[in-house]
Amino acid sequence: MNNYQTKTLQSYKWPAITLIVFLILSLICEGALNPYLQLTLLYILVNMILAMSLNLVNGYTGQFSLGHAGFMAVGAYTSAFLSFKFLPVAGSFSSLFYFIIFALVGGLLSAFFGWIVGLPSLRLKGDYLAIVTLGFGEIIRVIVLNTESLGGARGLYAIPGMQEISLFGDFVIGRFTSSFMMAAFWVILTFFVIWRLIHSSHGRAFKSVREDEIAASSVGIDTTKVKVRAFVISSFFAGVAGSLFAHFSNYLNPSTFSFIMSINIVTMVVLGGMGSMTGPMLAAAIVTILPEALRPLQELTGKDLRMVIYSLTLIILMLVRPQGLMGQKEIWNFWKKNS
Predict the structure, then answer these.
(1) Residue 172 class from Cβ within 10 Å (0-12 exposed, 13-18 middle, 19+ buried)?
(2) What pLDDT, on the 0 to 100 scale, is given for residue 6?
(3) Residue 163 in contact with residue 16, Cβ under 8 Å?
(4) Between 233 and 310, whose confidence is greater?
(5) Can you tell me the distance from the alpha carbon of 63 to that of 82, in angstroms, rounded to the nearest whole number?
(6) Do residues 60 and 198 lie in contact, with contact meaning Cβ atoms separated by under 8 Å?
(7) How many degrees, rounded to 5, is the angle at CA 226 between CA 224 and CA 230?
(8) Triad 52, 312, 130: Cα angle to 5°
(9) How far is CA 141 from the centre of its chain?
(10) Cβ(54)–Cβ(65) under 8 Å?
(11) For 39-57, what is the mean pLDDT?
(12) With DSSP H G I counted as helix, E B as strand and the rest as coil, what are the percentages for the chain, rounded to 5?
């Protein structure tokens, strides 16, 4: 076995090890945490997928998209609609594969919309691109708001989610464990795909467009094609995240996918570090946990000061670390430095 094959096998073993760690963690949390904390953990994983996918466009390709909530909505409503029509008996092991298929279909439809939006709009730059993508997100929200078959303004409720699954007779996988492992599977897959992509020739093309689009074009790189490719892949994983969100929350409302959601995702990317993979994942956890951790403060003061403190915390973090929490480094870089 040559050196290249050895490195390839080593790169594939880490996703399997991570998945096992997630399984052990989910089994522990199944009995140790209440449903509220369990749902918060699931939302953290969903936000990690959103942050990593947007980072591919905003961080590694140097564009500025504000329409991620729209692609998330496409995946969420597509997956919810399919689950109403085709999901078999809940609790069967085969139902997990249906949820994976629903997420794939939702992601592919989001990628298709990403291609439609990206092909003309990615010829634009900076603020113009942000306005176009923001407009797309609002168009999707308004369409859903006025479509009665998708719940309209009332929202779509009683969406099927992962249930307990019986394996090998008496061994039962709880609802949280099945949900957590489904989300963990997509988090690992998203990280692995984007990581391999940015360390390939495609990734070098993304970074060249980010650093100097004119110089990249002068050496023969089709910059529009490169940006559209990144946009489509990013949209796919946003759709997958939307699918998971739909089945975890069991309820969808058009107001959830407003531009505020897109701003939150951009905040995760900028706060974590636009040149890092693990930075936005860490920021996704912080942005998800911080407002919930401040919730008891409302009971003590009688006023909802959560968003004020949350906003001030983000401002302070950006003043102290303008390059983001991780900058262009990964978490394991700090481990190597300290060892």
Answers:
(1) middle
(2) 45
(3) no
(4) 233
(5) 33
(6) yes
(7) 115
(8) 45
(9) 18
(10) yes
(11) 95
(12) 75, 5, 20
Q: CA-CA-CA-CA torsion for 221, 225, 228, 229, nearest 10 degrees?
A: -80
Residue 122: pLDDT above 70?
yes
Residue with tokens 């403190």: 309
Asked if pLDDT for residue 34 goes beyond 60, the answer is: yes
- What is the three-class DSSP state of 91? coil
Residue 339: predicted pLDDT = 53
Q: Taking residues 66-74, report their average pLDDT.
A: 93
Q: What is the pLDDT of residues 222-261, one digit of tens each?
A: 888 899 999 999 999 999 999 999 999 999 999 999 888 9
> Residue 151: left if φ>0, alpha if ψ -120 to 50, beta else—which one?
left
Instruction: Give the span between the Cα atoms of 96 and 10, in whole angstroms.
Output: 28
Contacts of 136 (CB under 8 A, 6+ apart): 67, 70, 113, 117, 121
Question: Which is nearest to 76 in space by CA: 142, 144, 131, 164?
Answer: 144
11-258 CATH pick, 1.10.10, 1.10.3470, 1.20.1440, 1.10.1040:
1.10.3470
Q: How many CB atoms lie within 10 A of CB 35?
A: 9
One DSSP character per residue, 100-123 reads HHHHHHHHHHHHHHHHHHHHHHTT
The residues pairing with 173 across neighbouring beta strands, listed in sequence order, are: 165
pTM of the complete model:
0.90
8 pLDDT band (50/70/90 cuts)?
very low
Cα 209 to Cα 198: distance, rounded to the nearest angstrom: 13
If you count them, how many residues does the chain have?
339
State the sign of the Cα–Cα–Cα–Cα dihedral 228, 231, 237, 239. negative
Amino acid letter, residue 80: A
